[in-house]
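[job 4471] stage=fold_predict status=RUNNING
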Amino acid sequence: TITSRSLRLRRDLVIQDVKRGLRRVELGRRSMEVQRAQITQAQGKLVVARKKFELGLATNYDVVEAADDLRFAETGLIQSVASTIDSQYSLRAAIGTLVELPEELQ
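[job 4471] inference complete, writing structure tokens
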């Protein structure tokens, strides 16, 4: 019947939304790991650039460039965190746990 087809279609759409949400959350978590690693690497490069500058082996430009790389990596992490949070809320909406049901509907 039309009603059973409609229910199956709606169920399939919900399943697709949940799977898509799970993938987005996982990708967000991976992206945050990558960004954290980039921050660690950029911090190390900044330490090296400062030391070289102190020893006269690098210019102020090298230090500024390393600081910019660190700032870029930190910005990437912030974007990844925000995207992951958004993905988590989208997933919760897809599975129906975003809003608590009123007592009369439970």
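[job 4471] summary: Helices lie at 2-54, 60-95.
[job 4471] exit 0
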